[in-house]
From TrEMBL:
The keyword Membrane does not apply. The keyword Signal applies. Residues 1-35 form the signal peptide. It comes from the Bacteria. Residues 216-422 form the Rv2525c-like glycoside hydrolase-like domain. It holds the Pfam family Rv2525c_GlyHyd-like. Keywords: Signal. This is Rv2525c-like glycoside hydrolase-like domain-containing protein.
Length: 526
């Protein structure tokens, strides 16, 4: 049947439109494929190929020696970082970046506990999680090409993984000789003392640990302490020199080390890795990152008794939830370091982190660090903290003052960009206090907790079930703040800050005369 009139015209028009749409779709598909290809480019090194975003610069470290390998900017670095990188001081934070090195055991080009190893004859990346801490990087060893790739990330771990999944080998790939080089502490580090030890005087910190030759040249300087960034998901600079042999050499030459861990930053900051505002999550982050800090310290030969400083960059401490998150994180950081035999230190700006810690110094709500390191660039080489931290807080050789920053200095003919520090520290407290004993009790109902046994302002909640407490204090009646008639127990609640108090009324084994744990042991007085 042949159609005539408007119906035929409409069908013809629809057919024409369909043809146009089909052509447009094909063109769009071709354009999308071309765009996807043009949005990336391929990088090859020692027969190992990866595709990376097209706008990432590719830097050959063999032809551009001294380049600072920075993980806070998008870039691809090929080869080993130089022994003396030209880095700006105190760079913090990570984003997506890539470093590909020969897997030859030079510097830190070694396989550690977190390294993924591609199967023989492949460049295949298979995700795995080896630590509770968020490290901010993925390390992939490709033995068949004799290379190791470090892919860093801020909020974009999937982006880093996508890059590693594009890996392939070509005919130029050659396996390295022998077994994979592993990161281990050398026997020489058995003689390294707890750091920073006892010292009063000037020090400096730089983004990348200087080479031993630079440290020797800087023997002509007034400095005898150096800050080193041992790890953390916000550590921005590569550390080719920071090995156990370097630690052994420079400490034997009279240098004191300030071991610094650049972990998760304040919840209200703009960094990619941030502390949670949820108290329990913040504490778990602090615990996991303290464990990772200990692992990193042990790898480079820093013994128990050393002070490990968490680098908590400045933040808006008028934001109460932000401050609370930081305090919970740092409290757990301190507790876990003590449990592992290390002392706790905190670096932060005088006006935010230090001010928040000082406000809690005597409250018992949070565990306090053993040492503080405050940034206050007033050019005064002393440990006076002004109005930020009372002089009575951390008074016993427990302070470092970062008093200037971002300055080039030349000693022994070698220039380094540094922040300047003044230390008054002592190893007199090199054995951390033992963690408090825990007594397990059953609570029959969800219970409110308070900052003290006399307070009527609820600070959090302890869930029903089996919980631990530390000790007991005689306190007020539940509904009457003026009558003291039973025990209150110090605990870490499920919500709210640590070291709070819950009424023994909520214990399944409750009594006015005594408070016992589930084994019938009388809980000691605080």
């Amino acid at each position: 049947m042949h159609l005539t009139g408007p119906g035929r015209a409409r069908r013809a028009a629809r057919a024409a439109i369909a043809l146009l749409l089909t052509a447009a779709s094909a063109a769009l598909t071709a354009h999308s494929a071309q765009a996807a290809t043009s949005a990336t480019h391929e990088v090859a090194y020692h027969g190992y190929h990866l595709r990376v975003p097209a706008d990432w610069p590719v830097i050959d470290l063999a032809t551009e020696p001294g380049t600072c390998v920075r993980f806070d900017v998008h870039a691809v670095y090929l080869g080993h970082p130089a022994a003396q990188e030209h880095c700006p001081t105190h760079v913090v934070g990570r984003t997506e970046a890539l470093l590909i090195e020969p897997l030859d055991g030079t510097g830190t080009a070694t396989v550690d506990r977190d390294t993924v190893v591609a199967a023989k004859g492949t460049a295949t990346y298979t995700p795995r999680r080896t630590t509770a801490a968020e490290t901010g990087q993925i390390r992939l060893a490709v033995p068949s090409a004799g290379v190791i790739a470090t892919a860093t990330y801020g909020t974009g771990k999937p982006s880093a993984e996508r890059i590693l999944r594009t890996g392939r080998l070509d005919g130029q790939a050659r396996a390295g000789a022998g077994r994979l080089p592993e990161a281990t502490a050398s026997a020489a580090t058995l003689d390294v003392a707890a750091q920073p030890g006892t010292y009063a005087g000037k020090g400096f910190d730089a983004c990348a640990a200087p080479s031993t030759s630079t440290m020797n040249a800087w023997g002509a300087s007034p400095y005898r302490a150096v800050g080193v960034y041992i790890g953390g998901n916000s550590r921005a600079c590569a550390q080719p020199n920071l090995t156990s042999s370097w630690v052994s050499t420079v400490t034997a030459n009279g240098w004191h080390l300030i071991p610094t861990y650049v972990g998760s930053q304040a919840p209200c900051s703009s960094f990619g890795h941030r502390v949670s505002t949820d108290p329990a999550t913040a504490r778990s982050q602090g615990t996991a990152e303290a464990d990772d800090a200990v692992a990193q310290a042990q790898t480079i030969g820093l013994p128990a008794g050393s002070v490990l400083y968490d680098d908590m960059e400045g933040y808006d401490n008028t934001n109460s939830s932000c401050s609370t998150g930081v305090l919970n994180y740092l409290s757990a950081w301190t507790d876990e370091l003590h449990a592992r035999g290390y002392l706790s230190g905190v670096y932060s700006s005088a006006g935010s982190g230090m001010r928040d810690l000082a406000a809690q110094y005597t409250t018992g709500a949070y565990s306090m660090p053993d040492h503080i390191w405050f940034a206050w660039w007033n050019n005064a080489a002393d440990t006076n903290s002004g109005t930020y931290v009372p002089a009575a807080d951390w008074p016993d050789h427990q302070r470092i003052h970062q008093y200037f920053g971002g300055t080039n200095e030349t000693w022994g003919g070698v220039t380094v960009n540094i922040d300047g520090d003044y230390l008054d520290v002592s190893d007199g407290g090199s054995v951390p206090p033992p963690p408090p004993a825990k007594y397990w009790v059953d609570t029959f109902a969800t219970a409110p907790v308070y900052g003290s046994p006399t307070s009527t302002t609820q600070t959090g909640t302890l869930n029903a079930g089996t919980n631990y407490v530390y000790c007991k204090v005689w306190g007020r009646q539940i509904g009457d703040a003026t009558t003291y008639n039973h025990w209150w127990l110090k605990t870490d609640p499920d919500t709210g800050p640590a070291n709070q108090y819950v009424s023994a009324y909520y214990l399944s084994r409750w009594g006015n005369d005594e408070a016992k744990d589930n084994n019938g042991t009388v809980i000691p007085d605080c």
